[in-house]
Amino acid sequence: MKSLNKLAGIKNKTVILRADFNVPIIDDKIIDSFRIDATLPTIDYLLKKGANIIILAHLGDDGKKSLAPIAGYLNKKKYKGYFEKSDNPEIIRDSANRLCNGEILLVENIRRFAGEKENKKDFAVFLASLGIAFVNDAFAVSHRNHASVIGIPKLLPSYAGIQMEKEIKMLGKILKPKHPFLFILGGAKFETKLPLLKKYLNIADAVFVGGALANTLLKERGYEIGKSLNEDDIKGLKQLVKNPKLLLPMDVVVERGKTSLKKLNTVGIEEVEKKDTIIDVGTETLTRLIPLINSAKLIVFNGPIGKIEDGTKDLLKLLAKSKAEVIIGGGDTDEVINELKMRDKFTFVSTGGGATLEFLAHGTLPGIKALKLALGKA
Length: 378
Ligand code: 3PG
Prior knowledge:
Layout: E1 14-18, E2 25-26, E3 29-30, H1 34-48, E4 52-56, H2 68-76, E5 81-84, H3 89-98, E6 104-107, H4 121-128, E7 133-136, H5 147-151, E8 158-160, H6 162-175, E9 181-185, H7 190-203, E10 206-209, H8 211-220, H9 237-240, E11 246-247, E12 251-256, E13 265-268, E14 276-281, H10 283-295, E15 298-302, H11 310-321, E16 325-328, H12 332-340, E17 348-349, H13 354-362, H14 366-372
Parallel strand pairs: 1-4, 1-7, 4-6, 5-6, 7-8, 9-10, 9-15, 10-11, 15-16, 16-17
Antiparallel strand pairs: 2-3, 12-13, 12-14
Helix pairs in contact: 7-13, 10-11
3-phosphoglyceric acid is lined by residues 20, 22, 61, 140-141, 144, 353-354.
């Protein structure tokens, strides 16, 4: 995979940049600009080398949302250029041809275009024809086999952006970890998390599981979980729950029967009743994690560990005090970190959600493989 500093001869030429600008937006207001800001060093680098840039990015899954608020954000940051709202290829080409003197063209939500999600060859050929080189700085979408992720690198000299390289370097530390290594996993969906859980029960010294994943595992260990969110028919859990490295909540916050959220109880895991719904980990569980957090050299956290955020917040506060290298998987956990304004308290917070989980499970992603196989110099 080629680094950005190998990309030469781009003065007055156009470089295509895949960015992940899939950020939370409410009423046209960007709630968390983390992912956009993470790509600014790559944009600045390309501009400093005299390039014009065409940025390809998505927002939401179905292409319906507009990137207009992101164009506004870039404008406020004093970047020069245009936002092309049209999805007509000829209009986009005209706008691309107009670029000069370090201007940026932000193309409307790339998922609006037929051929992006299906990675259609002719769409990738069209995109590639707009520039002389391709840079992928969108680690967070590099688990998708889309045209703007894996199609273009087959057609143009391609390079990893600065954030992409940082993600690979920092998350790569987890693949060859320092010990003691504590892995903390939350959220739901065994389908995506089971491979990860199996892998890290081998690699890590201890694995704590919270969130809906923990409910399923507690049930498998024979505990009552009442009406809590859990998954049936997951194969291979019988053996897994016997693993002594696997740590589960020992007390939990429950909604009892029809009580309102105001009447939450914290109960020991053996005291959960049929009418209960587990919605968070209890304080005793977190207290028991403290010695592990304090002795660890590496901690990886991909949450959240409850349906409500209190436990996740308390855990993040404990992790922020740890002397270990603390690496946080993005996605839902990132929103909590943003709210707590704690991003700089950790060794690394990944911009990826699903992409981070896939990278941790497989050690690579389709978008990274595509960069490795890409053409040579621009
Ligand atoms: C994300 O939000 O994780 C990335 O932008 C990828 O989005 P996607 O899950 O819609 O492909």
